[in-house]
Structure formats: C-alpha cells, structure tokens
C-alpha cells in the first residue's frame, strides 16, 4: 500500500516500467546470491526441514524493506475537512462507492480477481514438480533462482513496453502468459520433468503482473484517491484466495489435471478482460469508456 501510493506521487507514469525493471535487476541479484549462499546450505542439512530458517530470513528482510518507506519524502496531501474517523462501515462504503462510480476500475478489479487464481496454484506447482521429478528438496533452490530470473525477464520486457505503449499493453501480454502457466506445468510434469524448472521461470511473471495492475490503477485514479484504489484492488484480489482450500481439496481428490485446466480457463477470461480495458494515455479514452461510449 505504502509503496504503491508513493510510487504514484513521485514517479511519472511514463518511467515506472523501466525503473521497476531496474529494481528487479537489483533485487534478483541479491535474491539469487542469498539462495546460493544460504538456501543451498540449509537444504543440505540431512534429516531437517529448513523452512523455519527460510521463513525467518524472508520475514526479517521484508520488515527491513518496509522500513525503507520511512526514508521517502512525499508531497503532502490536502486533507479534506470533516471526514472524521474512518470506521469499518465507512471503509466498506468507500470500497463499494469506488467500484460503482468507476466503470474502468470495476473492470480492472474483475480482471485482477480472475488473474489471482493462478496464485492459488503456487503450492501445487511445487508439489507436482517434486512428485514428477522424485527429487530431494535441493531442487527448490533451482526453482527459486528460476522464478527470480523469470521475474526480472518479464519486468524488463513489460517495463519497456509499458513506458512506450502504456500499461494496458503490458497487461495484454502478461495475462495470456499467466493463463498458460498451469498448462505449461501439466505438459512439463508429464512429458519433460527434467525441464520443470521452466514452470517457475514462467510464473515469475506473477509479481510483475501485480505491479502492473497497481500501475494501471494509479493511472486511472485521481491523485487523492490513489490509496483508496490500491486498497480496493488488493481487497478484490483477496476474495479468490478464499477458494484456495477448495482447489487444494480437488487436487487431493481428483488429481491436479482438472483443477489446473480450470484455473487456466479462469485466468484466460481475465486475459480477455485485459483486451477490453481502455488505454488511459489516449486522450478522452477513459471518459468515453466511463460514459459508455
């Protein structure tokens, strides 16, 4: 929330893609180095599951990352008088008001809700890969590195595309690729298990897509409503996660093939929605769409 809000204030829309790609290069370099230095050692320890160390390290780094927000300086907002304390009822009312009042934002949230179903498959991507390759947990290090390399690759490609042609163009590339991810996992697990790491390289696009959706929300929202739009978008993407236990139950009961194909179809609908979004940088495009023209 903090990063997305400050991003909208401090970085021009036409430069966000390239700067995020540059940040991905730095972050990926650090992540891969830590995986090689630390994760490889932790996974080598016989008879132990090192997830406690992994989660402690990641949680600590995330806390340190959140503290960097304290060093940013942003222009002050104009505080509206008479708003008073924001109760949960007012917050929910604000969410519904944003969705009702902005047709473009409503479509973006619908697309994001469909897209996020691919995230619910993340633990199953790992389990399918381990079963297919029948390997030890050492392979997790390879998958972590592959996922980070995929993230920086998609960040670079779509970042340049977003700066040149608009965020909508980047979303039109990312959503169809996300729909392919479950299909790719199925094919690799069944036919080419030795190349299953390509699945994790491919799903490196997921965090990139999250950022591009936030960037699109920032472009269509009035500056004073950036926090509201981002929080509403995040809330809408949270709802599909409530179905994650059901997806896990289906995987346990009938295997992974049908659930993976179903999620691919759902995300494919999100890809269709991406092609129905207007381009905010085209003069009059948002107004025409909101008015139904």
Account of the protein in words:
With about 290 residues, the chain is mainly α. It has helices at about 1-10, 15-45, 50-65, 90-100, 105-115, 120-135, 140-165, 165-190, 195-200, 205-220, 225-240, 245-255, 255-275, 285-290. Helix 4 crosses helix 11 (about 225-240) and helix 6 (about 120-135) runs parallel beside helix 8. The longest helix has 29 residues, at about 15-45.
Give a quick set of tags describing it.
14 helices; Growth Hormone, Chain: A; single chain; mainly alpha; 74% helix; 293 residues
Brief description of this entry?
It contains 14 helices and no strands. The protein is mainly alpha-helical and 293 residues long.
Q: Secondary-structure element order, as H and E?
A: HHHHHHHHHHHHHH
Enter the CATH topology name.
Growth Hormone, Chain: A
Question: Outline, from the CA principal axes?
Answer: globular
The CATH architecture: Up-down Bundle
The secondary structure category is: mainly alpha
Total beta strands: 0
CATH superfamily: MFS general substrate transporter like domains
**Biggest β-sheet, characterized?**
none
| CATH C-level class | Mainly Alpha
Radius of gyration: 20 Å
- Helix share bin: over 70%
Number of domains: 1
How large is the count of helical segments?
14
Q: Which whole number gives the mean pLDDT? A: 87
Question: What is the subunit organization of this protein?
Answer: single chain
- Which strand-content bin applies to the residues? under 5%
* Ends distance: 32 Å
Task: Give the low-confidence spans.
Answer: none
Question: What is the element layout, followed by pairings?
Answer:
Elements: H1 2-10, H2 16-44, H3 51-67, H4 88-101, H5 103-115, H6 122-133, H7 139-165, H8 167-191, H9 197-202, H10 205-220, H11 226-238, H12 244-254, H13 257-274, H14 285-290
Helix pairs in contact: 2-7, 4-5, 4-11, 5-10, 5-11, 5-13, 6-8, 7-8, 7-10, 8-10, 8-13
